[in-house]
Amino acid sequence: YSCTLVVPDSVVGHIVGRGGKGLHQSHDISGAQLRAYTDKASPFERRASIRGTDQQIGEALIALGKRFMRK
């Protein structure tokens, strides 16, 4: 399974973390593969993809949500 999120550019740094630490932590918690990339069609947004089982994706979304709420 996969899930794509559209994230405002103003908060993506907090979710990704320094050196990708936030994505690595979310991966360690969930087991899902996470990736953030620039959307050339929209300079104010970035996309994040999550790949894994439905349970892994759910756990990754929860982990990312917790990071976002701490902002």
What does this protein structure show overall?
- With 71 residues, the protein is an alpha+beta fold.
- The chain has one domain: 2-Layer Sandwich (Ribosomal Protein S8, Chain: A, domain 1), CATH 3.30.1370.
- 48% of the residues lie in helices and 28% in strands.
- It is built from 3 helices and 3 strands, in the order E-H-H-E-E-H.
- A 3-stranded antiparallel beta sheet has the order 1-3-2.
- The longest helix is centred in the last third of the chain and has 16 residues.
- The relative contact order is 0.29.
- The model has no long low-confidence stretch (mean pLDDT 91).
What is the structure about, briefly put?
By secondary structure, the protein is α+β, with helices and mostly antiparallel strands.
What is the string of SSEs from the N terminus onward? EHHEEH
CA-based shape = globular
What is the CATH H-level superfamily? K Homology domain, type 1
Task: Determine the fraction of residues in helical runs and give it as a percent range.
Answer: 40-55%
Mean pLDDT: 91
Helix/strand class? alpha+beta
Could you give the count of β-strands? 3
- The low-pLDDT segments are none
Give the amount of beta strand, in percent. Answer: 25-35%
Q: Kindly identify the CATH topology.
A: Ribosomal Protein S8, Chain: A, domain 1
CATH class: Alpha Beta
CATH architecture name: 2-Layer Sandwich
- Count of helical stretches: 3
Which sequence of strands runs across the widest sheet? 1-3-2
Compute the separation of the termini in Å.
Answer: 28 Å
